[in-house]
Amino acid sequence: MMLLYAIPMVCAAITDWKKRIIPDWTWIAILMVGFASAVINGKGILYIPLLERFTGLLFPAVCLLMIAFKWGGVGGGDIKLMAALGFCFGLYGLAAILFFAVIPACIYARATKQRSVPLAVFLGIGFFVYAGLLLS
Q1: Hey, is 41 helix, strand or coil?
Q2: Terminus of the chain with fewer CB atoms < 10 Å: N or C?
Q3: CA 125, CA 107: separation in Å to the nearest integer?
Q4: Rounded to whole angstroms, how far apart are CA atoms 105 and 119?
Q5: Contact at 8 Å (CB) between 72 and 82?
Q6: Sequence-ordered strand ranges (E) for the chain
């Protein structure tokens, strides 16, 4: 199941790195896999209650939208990708992904002296660390 999340995540990261854009099909694919997982998955390794999935979808999206409108700097693709990941892994899973994404993003921003980073790249890093911890 993780492979179905990994393919669009890698594509989003590569495109964000090269062009600073996240294609819509990537977050839509991640959201569709999450929806399928919510419908057919029993109480397996990725069982996440529906309320936690919707909280993971809405809470980060609303917060990032408010930040984007007030200060800018957060792209729409970043918001949609994070909302899709929040639905797939729930609010706690998204928090873990963000924990593992923020550290390399801050290191990259400081090393390159940039205020804007390709967030999908670092979300991908966080996703793969989180997936590795889940599957180990």
Answers
A1: coil
A2: C
A3: 13
A4: 8
A5: no
A6: none
Q: What is the pLDDT of residue 44?
A: 54
How much is the CA Rg of the chain, to the nearest whole Å? 14
What CA–CA distance (Å, rounded) separates 9 from 100?
15
Tokens of 72: 């800018």
CA–CA separation, 51 vs 134, rounded Å? 21
pTM tops 0.85, yes or no? yes
Amino acid present at 42? G
Q: 33-91, pLDDT tens digit by residue?
A: 998 888 886 555 567 888 899 999 999 888 888 877 877 767 788 889 999 999 999 99
Helical ranges in 45-75 per DSSP H: 50-70
The pLDDT of residue 28 is 96
